[in-house]
What does this fold into?
Amino acid sequence: MEVRDPLPGRQPHIPVLLTPLLKEVAPVSGTWADGTFGAGGYTRGLLAAGAAKVVGIDRDPLALQMAEAWAPDYGPRLVLRAGTFSDLDTLAGEPLDGVVLDLGVSSMQIDQPERGFSFQKDGPLDMRMSQQGESAADLVNHASESHLADILFHYGEERASRRIARAIVEARKEPITTTLRLAEIVAKCLPRPKPGQSHPATRTFQALRIAVNAEFSELAQGLAAAERALKPGGKLAVVTFHSLEDRIVKRFLQLASGAEANANRYAPASQSVTPRFTDLSKAIGPSDDELAHNPRARSARLRVATRTAAPALTLDPSRIDVPLLPTKGRR
Ligand SMILES: C[S@@+](CC[C@H](N)C(=O)[O-])C[C@H]1O[C@@H](n2cnc3c(N)ncnc32)[C@H](O)[C@@H]1O
It folds into this structure.
């Protein structure tokens, strides 16, 4: 099937932090999983840097269809799999030398109004990366006021969450079906932004996108899947785009490296853990040069760690700062 380039004449997605990532994980060899294939920028970078094979995974069918034009150039070195990175160990089907996750949405998704991620251009209120399941419009028009407020507060750190949720419930007597209508409802609840400040609907759109795509549970399960799949000495590299995501990755790696138990000299001996990850990098941000070429890299942070030979453990999401919503009163 021929797939139209959604952004003809433009680069579909500029890979973020790829240069520092390749430097941190060097030397690259063996089989890698790219759990967020997108436009394939990381995958091509890994193949060029020496990976024998990359399994490219994406939950967005359009991302994989677009790659059909060039993926055959790599022959058996590139395998594409539709699915979520929470299943990356099963989808890869073999022990891995490295895993990369570049979280969030791609420029291809944001820049296509019909995907419903953007408050800059009008489109249907959709936001589903996989194009399946409950859309943002379903959530906004049917969730209870308190559930909406919880989503905005816990997933978007929106301090005006209750005010915005009330305004949404008031406005949805006429169903809210487009991105610009939602953006206007939110904007009316907040002070006008000063020059240089982000659009007032930024936090609301982030929160709804996270809820629609279950992004936090995906991240927690994706980290656990990477732990199961990586060989001893294998590399995990994760790029996040906001502080809530970065905190989850940081916490996961701290716990998995045994930093917490080893720092507590009062912990009983049974709690001392054999590290499952070691050699944790600091959070690495974009260089001035990268920022000048790609302002979308502004909030990106890279963390890298190396898997040890210790057996993988079952993950408890509550221990790695995954924001949990109250379960009562969702509808
Ligand atoms: C920021 S883009 C990745 C861009 C890619 N690194 C590149 O250089 O082209 C994120 C991609 O990951 C996909 N994605 C997000 N969450 C996912 C998940 N849980 N499982 C699989 N794919 C996911 C999105 O559909 C999107 O295509």
